[in-house]
Amino acid sequence: MPAMTLTEKILAKHSKSAVVEPGQNIWIDIDILMTHDVCGPGTIGVFKKNFGKDAKVWDPKKVVIIPDHYIFTADKMANRNIDVLREFASEQKLPYYYDVGTEKYKGVCHIALPEEGHTRPGEVLLGTDSHTCTAGAFGEFATGIGNTDAGFVMGTGNLWLKVPPTMRFVFDGNLPPYLMAKDLILAVIGDIGCDGATYKAMEFDGPGVFALNIEERMTLCNMVIEAGGKNGVIAPDKITLDFINAKNKHKVPFTPMYTDPGAKFAYEKVYDISKLQPVVAKPHSPDNKSFVSEVKGTKLDRAYIGSCTGGKMTDFRAAASIMHGHNVKIDTFVVPATTEVAKGLKTEKMHGKTLEQIFLDSGAKMGEASCAACLGGPSDTFGRLNQAIRCISTTNRNFPGRMGHKEAEVFLASPLTVAASAISGTITDPREYIA
Ligand code: SF4
After folding, report:
1. Which of 10, 21, 97, 312 has the fewest CB within 10 Å, making it most exposed?
2. pTM
3. Residue 127, beta-bridge partner list
């Protein structure tokens, strides 16, 4: 039997084949299909057009709908999208619809999925959002698809897919306290470019990866799409399995898989992460890499801490560790990814204060769990860049107009770097605040 990578093994199992190889086109079975308020109505439209207005989804327990993008807005079109989701979830009797304005409301889908037990090693998870790749952190094949494919999956539970070749990124050494997973992935994207992994799996390996907690692994996989990656993946270990077993409230059985010894990789690169420096991506592309030390002192107008990339508890612990006892010098917006994270900010303490109190005392503004300004959104969106200002952000994209105004400039950085920059008003190396 030829040796296969983790991605190939998952796809082989889901195509009921003993072996698959890169470039092969296969039919695969899908474990979970996720959609949200931006793409859900389009997906539902494709599904109804092709399967009939009275058609039923292939398996209601496998369709997860998470409104998260344009939630806290008066925009009528955005509100209408959520009405469409609500009507569909009710009509189809979907148990996993996380409705706005109810106890079930979650926030950003990629963080909500694992919190609610919808991610499991060895599975295939598809979503109508390019950052669905985040779930590769749990040892599964996870990727974004368009509304047409999603409408087809909704009706059949299958997808026609080309097996991607795998690139392997090995992180050796210990991560210094001034670096986070965001620095690692920005370094990788800066090295290989925005098209460096086009239609390839990016597998992260090495002791530096397995020393990361599960949220930091999610940050790594979250941004593979910024290098064109089809999926990111990390083999499941004890940290993964402890997390999954704690969250798997639906008690769905799963089979962890691992890359075979001797599997072929299309590319391999080893990083000594103990020697890296804090990294930023300058406007207007995630591969426009600089070390923070090269752009330090650049004047800023705004700082933003949130999103599926930088709005998890680990991100806020890091930001609070720097912002504690300091006042922000620029407008600073803090947005928890999910309602669970929001609760954590109200309960977890550092230096005798909750993390939320640390942010509020520093002068930052707190938003409600959602994507908020990460994707710009309607003009009343919390934190949106409505003018041509310069922002440093923990989000994942900095294309023109991504966070609002087309002439705004966005620097992407780790929560440590964003927090240090918020309290100085200029791009600042977190090493200035970390002993
Ligand atoms: S937080 Fe940003 S990147 Fe993540 S799903 Fe929402 S809009 Fe997309």
Report:
1. 21
2. 0.98
3. 34, 144
